[in-house]
Specification:
2 copies of one chain form a homodimer. By secondary structure, the first copy, chain A, is of the alpha/beta class. Chain A is built from 11 helices and 6 strands. The two termini of chain A are 15 Å apart.
Amino acid sequence: MFMGASTEEGKLIAEKSRIIVKSLIKDQIEEIDPTEADIIERIVHSTADPEYAKLVQFHPKFVENAIDSLKANEDILTDINMVKSGITQYDGDVDCFIKNDEVIKIAKEFDITRASAAIQYASDIGFKGIIVIGNAPTALFKAIELFESNKLNVKAIVGAPVGFVGAADSKEALIHSNIPSIVTKGPKGGTPVAVASINSLIRLVKLNY
Amino acid sequence: MFMGASTEEGKLIAEKSRIIVKSLIKDQIEEIDPTEADIIERIVHSTADPEYAKLVQFHPKFVENAIDSLKANEDILTDINMVKSGITQYDGDVDCFIKNDEVIKIAKEFDITRASAAIQYASDIGFKGIIVIGNAPTALFKAIELFESNKLNVKAIVGAPVGFVGAADSKEALIHSNIPSIVTKGPKGGTPVAVASINSLIRLVKLNY
């Protein structure tokens, strides 16, 4: 199983794509850690956008912390259901609380986005694991705020919120927070980037990396 | 409810984003049909990538056919579950058959991708409506093949498969098929593009467009 392909035709397409991706971004990946290179390749494969190879930035402890958490089958928390539904090969739990009744109540009470309230709720119920954000800057800001006040047991964050309002700032704040993370600098990001990043690591863990 | 925002904070972010998006792509949208412009704006909002305004191409009957189908609550068929889970406001059915047992059997028997087998399966069970493709070129090729042999009752296609192998070709084939469609020309596309396109139309229908 490689990049979601489960048939011969699917595997051939994925292999051919891998070769094209490597040739497009070889200057950005030839001298970096192979696990980080694998993540970048998979992001470019998923978006067909080589610019991501220049936008991705890793905290030095991201890969190690994320792999430890995945090996322990800790929870993965996503900001929206689209991200959750792309994470299909994990043995642990993949949660998204954005439609939870309690979350909708928190959002109304504090007049914050549901995505932000969902992170608050995760903290309230004792979440431990990796947070994967593919959409909402407000969720990322909330995660940083809770981490910094010791209220969120997050081991690593995939920070790929997208948009022209807040996304770039939220990723700069993540870099400065010192939470082990991967981010795509600037406005770009999104669900395929977030899913590609975490799925690369899940596959490595399954291969007994 | 605008672009998924349901709280005051969310609405403010969406409005601010809309203004930025309009200013970034005004040359591409100022002289086109307002519904097509709305779709393009929403794609750029969802990807934070203004290049999409240059890549999007509409068949002249796409908007009309898609809106008629949505008004009649016909089915929406997606290639992968990530696309399905992004379409949250539709009153009709949103289907994705990629994990269906029969589809897995068809894929093995004919050695085709599951995404392609899922379109075959939809044809077999008498699907009627709109197909939304955010990932798999093989699904799009299969839809065109079945349409051309009068075996698929598809009213419109959102064609946003992504990748360096087959995606661009599948979208060229869609343009030449004369199926009412929206495509993103070239390798780029993906689930956010697909979801943004159909959600823009679903919202317009709800507003009694």
